[in-house]
Design a protein that fits this description.
Blueprint lengths: L3 E5 L5 H8 L3 E7 L2 H10 L5 E3 L5 H8 L6 E4 L20 H13 L3 E7 L6 H12 L2 E9 L7 E2 L1 E9 L7 H7 L7 H5 L7 E3 L10 E3 L4 E2 L31 H7 L12 H10 L3 H21 L24
Helix pairs in contact: 1-10, 3-4, 4-5
């Protein structure tokens, strides 16, 4: 289709690869975490990979002005919103959502896609980012998508915001509904019997939650930690089978495949860094689902004659939100 995409907060490359698989042209990607950049560089090629502090809005906008693009995608770090984190917007990482919104407002791509955890939709930070998007003239399609209905064998709910310049709100929602599966994808649906197991251990956040799962259900959300079966695991009424000696956790490679990274991906980096990159990533097939839905919408606009690619013209005046010391 040819639309040109820049991926900010590119992490392990889930958004980049998903959009590339859907036929978009990735022209650049950027992040500020060295392990993620190393992982991305080892596996995704053909465009510049920029080490850039995306909290520095002026510098980011200046660097992006060197590229020709139609769409900006990005998943600002979500730990301050996540149920696995402290859920404290004052810790600073949530401010990167504001940075992303300001970058969009000042580079004015025709479309943007922002991904985050579902919980972010109820945050004060997201409300402020939404105001920035709307003041910049974007119609927003805001949806929480379940990855297991979008080609991923994982029960992972994520917030997606698709913005379109000078458009109405909610235009993408009917396309999502039309293209989602009617039932969730299980691990067995995805792998068949190739894993050689029927059940596996996934360490719960507390022993009040189950820790043993069947491959005949979607995986729970892949997190940034992967622990062995502890000697003291007491079992849980919801476990798919009782604890037994042959039970094991999923391997790092298997977890990357459940995130729908390609089998040939090299898991470059320290074990802890790779586990975090995998756990934080946008599943490739989920990104591809959103990208294909957006492509369908763009095709409709082109058929109607309403699609007019824009020349991005960065503006360097700080917005009202950039002038605040805190955003939460």
């Amino acid at each position: 289709m040819g639309e040109k995409v820049i991926d900010l907060f590119c992490g392990g490359g889930g958004l980049s690869l998903g959009f590339a698989n859907a036929g978009y042209d990735i022209v650049a990607a950027a992040d500020n975490w060295a392990p993620a950049l190393e992982f991305y560089k080892a596996n995704i090629h053909g465009h510049p990979l920029i080490e850039m502090d995306l909290s520095k809005t002026n510098e980011t906008v200046s660097k992006l002005s060197k590229y020709d693009f139609d769409i900006i995608v990005g998943g600002p770090p979500c730990q301050d919103f996540s149920s696995a984190g402290k859920r404290d917007e004052s810790l600073g990482r949530a401010n990167l959502t504001i940075s992303f919104a300001n970058i969009i407002a000042r580079t004015t791509p025709h479309y943007f896609v922002m991904e985050n955890v579902a919980r972010a939709a109820k945050s004060r930070t997201f409300a402020q980012a939404k105001e920035i998007f709307e003041k910049a003239g974007y119609g927003l399609s805001i949806a929480v998508l379940d990855a297991s209905l979008c080609g991923v064998p994982q029960k992972r709910k994520r917030l997606f915001v698709v913005g379109e310049k000078n458009a109405s709100h909610d235009l993408m929602l009917p396309i999502y509904r039309k293209n989602q599966a009617t039932s969730p994808m299980t691990i067995r649906d995805f792998f068949g019997n190739s894993l050689g197991i029927n059940h596996y251990y996934r360490h719960p956040r507390s022993y009040k939650r189950r820790g043993i799962f069947s491959i005949d259900e979607p995986s729970p959300t892949i997190r940034g930690v992967n622990r062995p079966v502890p000697q003291g695991y007491p079992g849980h009424p919801g476990d798919s089978v009782p604890l037994h000696p042959d039970l094991r956790p999923l391997t790092t490679k298997e977890r990357s495949l459940i995130q729908t990274f390609p089998p040939e991906f090299e898991l470059v980096g320290t074990k802890s860094a790779v586990e975090q990159i995998i756990g934080n990533a946008v599943p490739v097939k989920l990104a591809e689902f959103v990208a294909k839905c957006l492509a369908e919408h763009i095709k409709e606009n082109k058929t109607k004659g309403t699609y007019q690619p824009m020349v991005s013209t960065p503006m360097f005046q700080p917005t009202m939100f950039e002038q605040r010391a805190k955003y939460a």
